[in-house]
Design goal:
With about 325 residues, this protein is of the alpha+beta class. About 55% of the residues lie in helices and about 20% in strands. A hairpin with a 3-residue loop joins strand 2 and strand 3.
Length: about 325
C-alpha cells in the first residue's frame, strides 16, 4: 500500500507540473516570450552562420590556391570545422532561447519532485519523437570527432557504392555531396556506415604490358593515351610509362600509370585497354605479347601490402634448448 501511494503521489505531482507548464506555455505572455526568444535566437544564429560561411569560403579559396598538399589538407580541415560550426551555432542559439524562456516563465511554487517527474516525462516524449534526429546527431558528432572526411574530399558512401562525389557541406544531421553527374545528394549521417576516400582526389590506375619492343610499345601507349578523354571528371592524367624491365630475350615488361576521377576507372580498365589492343592489331608490326591488364596502383598501398606479405612469410625460430650441466655426485 505504501508503494502504491508513493507512485500515485508522484504521478499526481507530475501531472500537476505538466498542467502548470502547459498553462504557462499557452498563456498569452508566456507564448509571446517564447516566440520572441526563438526569433531572436534564430536571427543571431543566422548572423553568426553567415559570418562563418563567408570565412569558410575564404579558407576554401586559400585551399584551392595552395600548391603544397599539406597546406591544402590543413585549409580543408579548417573549412570543414567552420562549416560544421555553422550548424552547431544555430542549434546553440535556439537552445539558449528555450533556456531563456524557461527561466523567464518558470512556474513559481512548483514542487521539485513534480518538476523532476514532469521533466522525465518530457524527456521520454521528446526522445521518442526526435530519436531519428538524435541518432543523426550522434553519428555526425562521431564522424567529425574521428575526422572521417572533410569538405572537398572525393568519397564513396558505404553501403551505397553509387553515391560518389565531392563533399560540399557537413552538418551534425546530414552530409551533402555533389555527384559526378552534377546531382546534389543529401544523406542522413546515421545511414553512413563508412566512406571510401580517394587519395589526392583521384584514382591511380596502372596498365601492365608484355611487349616485344619497348620503343614501339612506348609509341603505342602514347597514341592510345592521346585518344582518351581528359578533364577533371574524366582522365585527369594520361598514361605515362613508369617502368620498363627486360625479362628474357626480346621480352619486356612495361608499366604505364594514369589518374582518373572516382567512378571513371572504366576509362582505363576498358577504354584504354581496348584502344591498345585495337591499335596494336591494326599496326604492321604488332608489339603486344598478351592482352594488357589494368589494376589499381598506389605507392603507399603497395608498400603496406609488401610489408604485410613479408611479415607473413617469416617463420618462427625454433625454441632454444637449455644447456644442461652434468654433475657427478660422490
Amino acid at each position: 500500500m505504501f508503494g502504491n501511494n508513493t507512485v500515485n503521489d508522484s504521478i499526481n505531482q507530475s501531472s500537476g507540473a505538466l498542467k502548470q507548464i502547459s498553462e504557462a506555455l499557452f498563456s498569452g505572455s508566456s507564448f509571446w516570450v517564447l516566440v520572441m526568444a526563438l526569433v531572436l535566437g534564430w536571427a543571431l544564429g543566422k548572423v553568426f552562420a553567415l559570418v562563418l560561411r563567408r570565412l569558410s569560403r575564404s579558407i576554401g579559396k586559400q585551399a584551392d590556391a595552395a600548391t603544397d598538399l599539406a597546406a591544402v589538407n590543413r585549409f580543408r580541415s579548417v573549412e570543414t570545422w567552420l562549416i560544421l560550426s555553422t550548424a552547431i551555432v544555430r542549434v546553440l542559439f535556439l537552445i539558449l532561447a528555450l533556456y531563456f524562456w524557461w527561466v523567464f516563465t518558470h512556474p513559481q511554487g512548483s514542487k521539485p519532485t513534480a518538476l523532476v517527474g514532469a521533466s522525465a516525462i518530457l524527456i521520454v516524449v521528446i526522445g521518442g519523437v526526435f530519436s531519428p534526429l538524435l541518432r543523426d546527431f550522434a553519428f555526425g558528432g562521431g564522424m567529425m570527432a574521428e575526422h572521417w572526411f572533410g569538405v572537398g574530399d572525393l568519397i564513396t558512401i558505404v553501403p551505397f557504392p553509387e553515391l560518389q562525389g565531392v563533399v560540399e557541406k557537413i552538418t551534425l544531421r546530414s552530409t551533402r555531396i555533389r555527384g559526378l553527374n552534377g546531382e546534389v545528394i543529401w544523406i542522413s549521417n546515421q545511414n553512413i556506415a563508412g566512406v571510401r576516400i580517394a587519395q589526392k582526389g583521384v584514382w591511380t590506375m596502372a596498365v601492365e604490358l608484355f611487349v616485344l619492343d619497348p620503343k614501339q610499345a612506348e609509341a603505342l601507349i602514347e597514341r592510345a593515351s592521346t585518344l582518351l578523354p581528359t578533364g577533371p571528371s574524366l582522365v585527369v592524367s594520361r598514361l605515362k610509362i613508369m617502368s620498363s624491365d627486360q625479362h628474357g630475350d626480346g621480352v619486356w615488361h612495361m608499366t604505364a600509370v594514369a589518374e582518373t576521377a572516382p567512378g571513371r576507372q572504366w576509362l582505363i580498365e576498358k577504354t584504354a585497354l581496348a584502344l591498345l589492343k585495337d591499335l596494336d592489331e591494326k599496326s604492321k608490326n604488332p608489339v603486344l605479347l598478351s592482352d594488357p591488364v589494368a589494376r589499381y596502383a598506389d605507392n603507399d598501398t603497395e608498400r603496406q601490402f609488401a610489408r604485410a606479405v613479408t611479415n607473413a612469410k617469416k617463420t618462427k625460430r625454433p625454441p632454444r634448448r637449455l644447456k644442461t650441466s652434468r654433475s657427478s655426485s660422490r
